[in-house]
Design brief:
single chain; 268 residues; mainly alpha; 6 helices; 79% helix; BMERB domain-containing protein; F-actin_Monoox_Mical; coiled coil; bMERB_dom
């Protein structure tokens, strides 16, 4: 029937208008979206500049000052004890009345050499600790100088001023002085090492010579010398001196008597 046909046509027209509107809306959204050929699509947002790195102090390995001071006090105590032992041995050697050195005296001299060698080792360790203490202080100062120089160098150019440039120059000059001082310490340690080697060689040579003398005396003992103490020698020397003085007085008396007789003869 004609009424049904008109309703179908109206429904189709309504659907077509709706589809057309949807297509127009889709085309409009596509037109608003930039294509790959446009500059705006490929342009990226500018990232912020990286932040300036913060300087960090360099870490160093160091011996605590308390440990250095404690070891130096211990060395001083040992040195006093060695000096005391050395004085006792020297007094024992001087108090002996032997006409010639005996094996016992040679052994005492050897012990004295050992004490001297040990005392020298303590002195060397003490000097080494002093070098370590000074070197650590200079190294700490060098680390601080390097940190301050880095802080100035990382400062932006628009924030630097004349005082920063002057301060940087002063820090660089002081850094060179610290490095030279540390090099002098290294040179001094090398000189001390060579001197120590020479001293050790000399002491070892003397000790070896004494040991060989002791061995020779132990293998072929010499005959015991006649016992003549210093007291006996002094008495003999005193007696001979008194005799000489008596003889001298006798001679003077004879000369005086002859002079008197001569004068009497002349007066006559």
């Amino acid at each position: 029937p004609p009424i049904k046909k008109n309703d179908d046509v109206a429904a189709k027209d309504k659907d077509g208008v709706k589809d057309k509107q949807e297509k127009n809306q889709a085309n409009k959204s596509l037109q608003d979206t930039p294509s790959k050929s446009t500059f705006a699509y490929w342009k990226r947002k500018k990232r912020p500049a990286p932040s300036v790195p913060v300087p960090v102090r360099r870490e160093i390995k160091r011996i605590p000052l308390k440990e250095i001071q404690a070891e130096m006090e211990e060395i001083a105590t040992k040195q006093e004890e060695l000096e005391r032992q050395g004085r006792e041995i020297e007094m024992q050697i001087r108090d002996r009345n032997d006409a010639e050195p005996t094996i016992e005296e040679e052994e005492m001299i050897m012990h004295l050499f050992e004490l001297v060698n040990e005392k020298n080792n303590l002195f060397r360790r003490q000097a080494e600790l002093m070098y370590i203490k000074r070197s650590q202080r200079l190294e700490e100062e060098q680390v601080e100088l390097e940190y301050q120089i880095r802080c100035i160098m990382t400062k932006p150019l628009n924030q630097k001023c004349e005082d920063d440039a002057k301060r940087e120059e002063e820090l660089l000059q002081r850094l060179l002085e610290v490095v030279e001082a540390r090099n002098e310490i290294v040179d001094s340690q090398e000189m001390d090492r060579r001197r120590v080697m020479q001293e050790d060689w000399s002491i070892q040579e003397q000790m070896a010579q004494k040991q060989s003398e002791i061995k020779e005396k132990m293998v072929t003992p010499e005959p015991a010398p006649e016992r003549s103490t210093r007291k006996g020698q002094a008495q003999e020397e005193g007696q001979s001196g008194e005799k000489a003085r008596r003889d001298g007085r006798r001679g003077e008396a004879q000369v005086a008597e002859e002079d008197v007789q001569g004068k009497l003869v002349l007066s006559k």
